[in-house]
Specification:
This protein has 417 residues and is mostly helical. It contains 16 helices and no strands. It folds into 4 domains: 45 residues, no CATH class; 159 residues, no CATH class; 87 residues, no CATH class; 72 residues, no CATH class. 71% of the residues lie in helices and 0% in strands.
Length: 417
């Protein structure tokens, strides 16, 4: 055999170092096998030297870079074609779509949060929170709005005025007729009626303020007894009351964990109570550190994407239900397009950082055109059908993205620690 057929290679892969059995899995080998067909380990009996170690390291690094460059060039220059190649079996040339998208997502969100563009929100929150004197971030009172109202005094005056008015209506029929005419004027003049309703609402505000002060005094004097009344009820409204209670005592008494709240306020060890405490703690931290909260939430979005795309792919499957491709093929198509989207966003962030500009809009337009070409090339349908499906799928995508981001940020408010 000798040097015939080019089987001899340098280093550990020369024929004199080839074995007939894989050292890793024991699979029988032919001397022409450079790698084990069972486990892919190199067929070499030569003892590993430092030179061999570095040669293999740089060889695998160059091999990865070669795949990366081919994947990038195919994505950028041949929309949709890379997906067609991949599902037809030409996979050794390109990187794995799932791993490639995950790497790009992490890189983008790392770059996005590294700028720490929301740090000024933390500073603003510190200044704002320093001016708040109320015990609770979840309630308001008329005094904080600049309205000084003595609830008891106003209630007494209102009751006295109503009694006097009833007396006049009984003793003086003319007053009653005049009030009836006044009601008819209110019906004809909506603006006047609105102004009168606003005046009447002061009494309601007074009652609300009085009720709030009563609740505040209960929490201040006997918080354990107040929380006992909450534990006897159920429902979402009661849960929000528990959150408000925990928020007040966390701020006032410096409670660090749920176990301390259990000991100090005789709180039952239930899932509902623990969730209310954690929610209150998270909401307080969001109020104190809004910038850090936004960055922390954005850093979770790469994981959310991999729950979002499979759902979106269901709509692609329905739109192209008569096509030859299965769900996995559509999913790979989504991964490739989303990868290109992150590449463009990374380029946009880089240009914005270097030249101090805002280029996101331009790259979004580029991606819009790219996606149309990818759909045309991959699914092979005419312009009209592609445009209709393009508009429909993009509408679905935006709706799903909106609700996904909304749910992510809402959930993050209650779980930020």
């Amino acid at each position: 055999m000798g040097k015939k057929d080019g089987l001899i290679t340098k280093g550990r892969y020369e024929l004199k170092f080839r074995g007939v059995t894989c050292l890793n899995c024991g699979h029988p080998l032919d001397i022409s096998d450079k790698y084990c067909p069972n486990c892919s380990q190199a067929n070499s009996t030569k003892k590993l030297t430092l030179k061999d170690f570095f040669d293999e390291f740089f060889s695998s690094l160059i091999n990865y870079d070669s795949k990366l460059l081919k994947t990038l060039s195919a994505l950028l220059l041949r929309p949709g074609t890379i997906t067609k190649d991949y599902i037809e079996g030409k996979r050794i040339t390109y990187t794995n779509p799932f791993r490639f998208l995950l790497s790009l997502a992490f890189l983008y969100f790392l770059m996005f949060t590294y700028n720490n563009r929301f740090a000024n929100l933390d500073e603003a929150a510190k200044k704002f929170n320093g001016t708040i004197t109320s015990d609770s971030p979840f309630s308001f009172n008329l005094e904080s709005m600049g309205i000084d109202i003595d609830s008891a005094k106003m209630k007494s005056q209102s009751e006295k005025a109503l009694k006097q008015l009833d007396s006049l209506k009984v003793n003086n029929p003319g007053v009653k007729i005049g009030l009836q005419e006044f009601d008819s004027i209110k019906a004809k003049d909506p603006d006047l009626a609105t102004q009168l309703e606003q005046l009447d609402s002061i009494g309601l505000f007074a009652k609300f303020n009085e009720k709030k002060h009563h609740k505040d005094s209960l929490i201040a004097t006997n918080p354990a007894e107040y929380f006992k009344t909450l534990q006897e009820k159920s429902g979402f409204g009661n849960f929000s009351s528990k959150v408000e209670f925990f928020a007040r005592v966390i701020q006032r008494d410096t409670i660090f964990n749920f176990e301390q709240a259990m000991t100090r306020y005789q709180v039952n060890k239930t899932w509902n109570n623990r969730m209310a405490f954690n929610s209150a703690n998270s909401i307080l931290r969001v109020i104190q550190e809004p910038g850090s909260w936004i960055n922390a939430t954005i850093s979770k979005l790469p994981f959310i994407i991999f729950f979002f795309l499979p759902v979106f792919t269901l709509f692609i499957s329905l739109v192209y239900i008569r096509n030859k491709y299965n769900y996995t093929d559509h999913l790979i198509f989504s991964f490739h397009n989303q990868s290109l989207f992150f590449i463009l966003l990374i380029l946009s962030l880089t240009l914005d950082a270097i030249f101090n500009i805002s280029s996101a809009g331009i790259f979004l337009l580029i991606f819009g055109f790219y996606l149309y070409k990818a759909m045309r090339n991959f699914y092979g349908q005419g312009r009209f059908k592609t445009i209709v499906k393009y508009l429909f799928l993009n509408t679905i995508f935006l709706m799903l993205a909106f609700f996904t981001i909304l749910a992510t940020f809402t959930g993050s408010v209650f779980t930020y620690n």
